[in-house]
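thread from #wetlab-drylab

HS: before we spend reagent money on co-crystallization trials with 1,6-di-O-phosphono-beta-D-fructofuranose, can we at least see a predicted complex? here's what I'd submit
DV: go for it
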Amino acid sequence: MSDKETISIEDLIKKPEAQKVISNINQELIERRAYAPEKCEVFSSPYTALREDSDYRFSVDKEARKALPRIIDNKVQFVVGLESPEESFKESYCKKRNIGIVFSGGPAPGGHNVIAGLFDAAKQANPETKIYGFLLGPDGIIENEAKELTESLVDAYRNLGGFGMIKTGRTKIDTEEKMALSKETCKALQLEALVIVGGDDSNTNAAFLAEEMFEDGVQVLGVPKTIDGDIQVRDEDGHVLCAMSFGFHTAARAFANEISNLCTDSTSDVKYWHICKVMGRVASHLALEVALQTHANITLIGEDLADYVHKKRIEKAEKEGTIDHTAYGMTLRHLSRVLCEGIVKRAAVGKNYGVIVIPEGVLEFINEIRVFITKLNVIIAEYNEMHDTDFHSGFPLLIDKLEYLRKLARRSREDSSFTIWNTRDDDLFDDIPAFFREGLLTERDSHGNFQFSQVETDKVIMGLVKDYLNILKEQGAYKIGIEKSYYRKTLENGGLDPDYFGPILFESYDDSGFLMVKTSVISHRRLQQALIKEGAIKENEGIPGPIEKIFKKSVPKFKTQIHFYGYDGRGSDPTRFDCTYAYNLGLTVFSLIANGATGQMAAIKNLEKGFSSWEPIGIPIAPLMHLEERKGMLALVMEKSVVDVNSPAFKAVKAFRDKWLGAVPEKDEYRRPGPIRFAGKSEEERPITLVLNALGK
Ligand code: FBP
């Protein structure tokens, strides 16, 4: 095409076809916005009521009873449909209300549907009802930064990921001043109810606000949100009330899609180990689901490492009449050995590549690291309390922070009652690579949590793995197995007799598919010596070309590519499961509000079963609280749920460990979940973890 025939860019972008492809309103967006999630059966009734069920029992922490007396005796409530209630009920159900809603903590796919469900139910009950969205998380409540949510705004975000409509933040309403300001905001907006969509810390906040505003008549409700999947509620008798928070399925599916693509690339390019760190601040639920979705070669589960018991050490200690505390839980060194074992086994069948999934919070489950994190949490919190500047402003550089720790270690030598940081701690800390020390000293979030996403966990673990693989290489234990047919062909093509050289070169020159070069042959020189010793070549004679080729092929290079899956999956558009789940949570929360509940968390019981079995409920938050270390002190927080190593889902992953490692000549057993599809039959119904846990009961 000549220049004269080219149309100007201005004219090009005016063309309707060009506008269509450039527009940010694409077909996927149109379909998502138009999709109406199914409603649980109870919501087909014009009204809903709450039925209390005292059969679900909780063991209540006495501190929680003391701190939350007004809501501690709340019961589990089931939402039930009502066709034609009394007039007085209708009046109170349908009265005009002002309701506030806030997102708190990290984004989770489905959040906009919680708003949409609440909005639809509230407007259906009374079109005059106003829903206010607090901006930028709890700060919006404290500073009264809110906007009234309109139909067009809600419609623009239906079934879409992120928390873009009102944004989010991590501030905790944890001081009298912040609490007073929050109360003022609720008063100024004449709120009847406040909905907090958040994780364990945010639901903890919801409980304290519910208690505080009980007398003012402001109802406060929580909604279980977090991609980490660590809000799972059971009662004391093990009945599952909330199997999973919303957002988990989407994030896991997004990570799994990416990781399964790496499995494909890895088996094609056959030169990299892909190291995939996946989010989940502490619990390894996401890693577990990714393992089930992808069958990656190795998946670490933090809770499993903590559960490890070194039997030999225990037996030895028993014989000596002592207790070996170090025998419980896996050390970082041991973990690196376990990984190396898998890598070496795959290499032996010619697979010097693969995919490893590492949960973001895995270090929390490694004893020695956990101790450092806890100690440093206390040190940082104490410093912040005693000084005008916070620890990180006081010591902006690593070198200053280390000097402060050294000072503490010196103090421990002079004062035996000072035990938080002693010389041994300081020495052990010194042995850790600088980047990791910096990571461990990183700023805590507003809830006092250690920020695992800021630490290069993978680098720490893989550093140790690389070091040990080098040792194994020197010992001749880490080698790439050579396919026997390839070996034969190479030697025959070079005019050499494979059966003559085979026993000289290989560990056992039998009929197996893969041959391992002898462990003693660890270098070119050693190979030459072995050939001379066996009379295959003369002194000073070079190594025959085909033998050299085979030897080179057997020497592994350990090459890695590091990936982090977190923010990307967190920002994905929700799966159909999360769209439906979150929308029904929104409907549930309105039902709780309209029926006067407070201090409850909306949930859907039977999430692990088919949609027709889903039951919207309210779970009392206060009885779920227990004491946990935060900012160096014990604080009441909602209990996080970690992976249960006795759960069917975990046991399934364990049972398939060897198979998925794929240390066999055959093809790897990878599973391809495919991308998140919103429509169509191929979209799976719910997380595999839930399916297996339900089937295993
Ligand atoms: P929530 O518990 O608030 O849902 O956040 C979870 C999470 O996505 C973790 O997986 C991750 O460790 C953390 O947030 C990252 O925090 P940030 O967004 O502050 O970097």
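DV: DSSP finds 30 helices and 19 strands in the chain.
HS: ok that's useful, forwarding to the group
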